[in-house]
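Predict structure. Chain length: 421.
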Amino acid sequence: MTPAGTTAAPAAVPAGRPGSPTAGAAGHESADRPETVGDGGSVWSTLRNRLRRWSFWLILLVLLCGVVALELLRGPAADRADLSPGNAAPNGAKAVAEVLRQQGVQVVATDSLQETRDQLHAAGGTLLIHDPNGYLSAEQLEPLKAQAGRIVLLEPGFEALRALAPGVRAAGVIPADGGNLPADCRQPGPTTAGEITRGGFSYRGGSDMCFAVDTAAGDAAPYVLSDDGATVVLGAGHVLSNEAIVQAGNAALALNTLGATDRLVWYRAGPQDVPVADAPVNPMSLLPEWVLPVSLWLMAVGVVAMFWRGRRLGPLVSEPLPVLVRSAETIEGRARLYQNAKAVNHAADNLRAATMTRLAAQLRLPAGASSADVVNAVARNSGRSRAELERLLRHEEPGTEARLVAWAQELQQLEKEVTHR
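Prediction complete.
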């Protein structure tokens, strides 16, 4: 930032604004005042200005966030689970649950295996099991067969079929495209429904199959009755959804299947039902066999590298203090800080104060001389007009770096004229 060939201001001479009581006093006052070097001051002032400008919108945003947070904390979390009796969204099954309640069926929703057992032990009834993620094992499901009078397996997996419907096997997915599926069986519920929309999973086996479709391996159906007749395997879970319940005979099938008794326990399995092992699992047993030897080898290589690099660096070298730094280096460093921060005005103040101080000393003015006294003395000794010197020494405000360099050269030329006169 300091121009070439220009007499740079010494590091100890701070900036002073023109018009101060004295040039010397300006230097002394600035010496006790800390300066902000770099762009820290400008960044903070810019940030304060922006905060002040956008304060209304920031306050409004904070208030809106607070209202939303209070609403979220005050209200319970909405039920968004698929085929949940409390979910009113298209993927939920709240409509079926409400119609069953209106028809006198007590619908009890449970979300844990223990709660389900307690409800069945208290009053029995029909048990609907929905375990889409396969959390339950066959050992957990088998005791439920003795507690429930009737079981409906909703889109069951292998473990549920093995425990509660051993004669039924999975047969794949039924495409949703195509016409409706006719009942074509002897069961009263499907016969009343007549037909249902396509989709869901298909099964084969059991004592009876309804809504059968042709597959490469033979007939399969989304509605299968187990060999003992106590379990219904319903692979067409979509017929219970709020979105599809009004289509074809979906509602009739849902109500006849779930409303066969006066009480329905609707059980949705969750992660809390996953059985916990009796003994804690050793984390090392979950890692591949090569992890331990490779880790030991890497540790050994790291220790060897530490000794190798430590010897190459050598011992620490002490240096006597204090360290002396040349004034030219400090001036150059300050100029670079001003340049990076684009602090043109701050650099101009330093140049102005330094020039005033040197001119006052050259013209042998007293310590209490003001900036106007310095201008008058320079006018007498340089031959320049007082108006020109007022502009050059007191009122010049360079707005760009190019103008700052040109002005610094003018100040240098003025000092040469006064010094060699």
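Summary: The chain is about 45% helix and 10% strand.
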